[in-house]
Amino acid sequence: MLEQQKKILIVDDDAEICSLLTEYLQKNGFKVVAVGDGGAMFEQLQADHFDMIVLDIMLPGDDGFTLCKVVRNKSNIPIIMLTAGSDETDRIIGLELGADDYVGKPFNPRELLARIKAVLRRYEDYQKEPVAGSTKEIKIIKFGDFSLNMTNRELMYKDEESESLNGADYNLLNLFLTRPGEVLSRDDLSYHLRGRDASPFDRSIDVQISRLRNRLKDDGKSPQLIKTVRGAGYVLTVPVETVN
């Protein structure tokens, strides 16, 4: 059980799944609220604080992709998406929209519980210590022509207007910033971001790298910040400077 009791919002129109997950997660120390559509989800988010959303893709009204995008534009709350088990496209789209992880249906509740705990631990670790080996007083990380505000997760390019990073993009960038000049394999990235190695046919890490490169104005065909090391992984090639 986690040190502090966390509150999970489940959004799924399958009453049986909601009941099963509510009972299982409550037995494992979580507070749980389950709703069946986006309207009810937003009502709950306005009325109460939640530590995570478990969001199904197939919903009446707005689907999970639409809801994930709306939430991510306003909040960095961790999101785990429930996807069709064999549909890689759903998983990739969810990650592109800012989901932190995914679980394919049908799933074992124990697997979802493990994913929930892993995402929450990573989220809390990033909140407590933005840069490995640094102190909490550090607020700004500079690299290349960019600066990242660790307090509000805003990324700024030169003197242009800053933009907020979602949970997945922030976590991935933060990992590179803690290990500049080090080649990180797909397994390294998957393990630190999701608590497991990357499967041979899982393209989600590559999709997240591509998305982050776009945020960093880094040409995927000839990247200057995050370079591909063929057969080995990815590396952040610019110096990193911390500013208190």
Could you characterize what this model shows?
It is globular and about 50 Å long. It has two domains: 7-128, Response regulator (Rossmann fold), CATH 3.40.50; 140-243, Arc Repressor Mutant, subunit A (Orthogonal Bundle), CATH 1.10.10. The protein has helices spanning 15-27, 38-47, 64-74, 88-96, 109-128, 167-178, 186-194, 204-215, and strands at 7-11, 31-35, 52-56, 79-84, 101-105, 140-143, 146-149, 154-157, 163-164, 226-229, 233-236, 240-243. By secondary structure, the chain is an alpha/beta fold. It has a five-stranded parallel β-sheet, with helices on both faces. Strands 9-8-7-6-12 form a five-stranded antiparallel β-sheet, with no helix packed on it.
Fourth-level CATH superfamily of the largest domain: Response regulator
Uncertain parts: 129-135
Distance between the termini: 35 Å
Helix content class: 25-40%
Mean pLDDT: 84
Structural class: alpha/beta
SS summary, helix count: 8
> Based on the structure given, which CATH architecture of the largest domain is correct?
3-Layer(aba) Sandwich
> How many separate domains?
2
Large-scale geometry: globular
Report the C-alpha radius of gyration, rounded: 18 Å
Main β-sheet, spatial strand arrangement: 2-1-3-4-5
Largest sheet: 5 strands, parallel
Strand content: 15-25%
H/E element sequence: EHEHEHEHEHEEEEHHHEEE
Look at the structure and give the CATH class of the largest domain.
Alpha Beta
CATH topology grouping of the largest domain? Rossmann fold
Tell me the number of strands.
12
